[in-house]
């Protein structure tokens, strides 16, 4: 197989969901203007990203970095085969997302009440009820639903999360029309063996739905966890250009695994992503310039190998 900037041609494919425009920016002190966010999204697509979490339809008073979601969606370039994802947490957010013509809706359902109450103002049981309402409202729209299980590997408020708890939440999600379920290590506490075991456990109750994983590198285990997920059969991974990210409601949580660093690990492991490594590294640096800080990613500093 011939090597390329987007992974070996003809190799097994791993899909990258770029979350930089949402998760990457929502915890930054500097708020990027709508124009920069549109440019970031369009340039990520030009680099080969085909699914991108573009916006979040949350209360801008709580997360000012995500204000202007409608303006962002109105300004992005729409291209065949590209999915612009909108995060929603309630019915009002869903109505905004549908009106803004998102390609896909993602709903976050925490595995713990401690995080759910602080992040979303309700219990997990109440959030599952909201999810059912969102699922019903999406019927007939043609907009696919994906669901992310937050704090699946550990919670900043409730501590350890029993795998049985995550399995039960996934079982409830499987009662909806969701086409994909993601396991999120919101605060970066997971380790590879935990990933392997949890992916296997939820796979038994996910009803054949695609599984996706979302890792933060808070304790320097994010990339090992991503590779463990791939070894366990996961073929969709979230990442953030430059390694920026974090949650305003998760104390001490640091950035997502960096897209460019993840691409390097996947490509060197013989996997194809379709996303340009050099393009992603350049975009990570571009984000750093606009945010006024050094990107946490290493690829932009060390460079690819071979050069």
Automatic annotation (TrEMBL):
Q: Which organism is it from?
A: Nocardiopsis dassonvillei (strain ATCC 23218 / DSM 43111 / CIP 107115 / JCM 7437 / KCTC 9190 / NBRC 14626 / NCTC 10488 / NRRL B-5397 / IMRU 509) (Actinomadura dassonvillei)
> Keywords of this protein's UniProt record, alphabetized?
Lyase, Metal-binding, Pyruvate
Q: Does the keyword rRNA processing apply?
A: no
**Record protein name field:** Pyruvate carboxyltransferase
Protein origin, superkingdom: Bacteria
> What InterPro entries does its record include?
Aldolase_TIM (IPR013785), HMGL (IPR043594), PYR_CT (IPR000891)
Q: Which Pfam families match?
A: HMGL-like (PF00682)
Give the similarity note: Belongs to the HMG-CoA lyase family.
**CDD domains tied to this protein:** DRE_TIM_HMGL
PANTHER family under this entry? HYDROXYMETHYLGLUTARYL-COA LYASE
The Pyruvate carboxyltransferase domain extends over: 14-281
An MF annotation (GO) of this entry:
hydroxymethylglutaryl-CoA lyase activity
Q: Cross-referenced SUPFAM superfamilies, in alphabetical order?
A: Aldolase
UniProt key word Lyase: yes
Region of interest (Disordered), ranges = 1-22
Give any single GO term for biological process. Answer: L-leucine catabolic process
